[in-house]
Amino acid sequence: xxRDEPVRLGDSxxxxxxxxxxxxxxxxxxxxxxxxxxxxxxxxxxxxxxxAAHVQPVKLDGTTxxxxxxxxxxxxxxxxxxxxxxxxxxxxAGASIERIxxxxxxxx
Length: 108
Known about the structure:
With 108 residues, the protein is α+β, with helices and mostly antiparallel strands.
């Protein structure tokens, strides 16, 4: 391919992610960009509207997903939901999540 030809955005993002985290290929069988897009792009579908209203994904670091909750009570609730969320993220987004780290958002 010549340098002046257009490149698909998905291909370009996959190359950028791969260059930043080349070891992701060993930890997850899916392309990192596709997994990230699935987790962030299909979040509500994976976790449901009620959870998505209070919990947002912040960062996917290999097999660890960092989420932010809007209230400390949701941090407690996620301890009970973690297994279900990991299963749903695998089904919906193709993500192999081993751990979910929860952070409570600062009040504004």
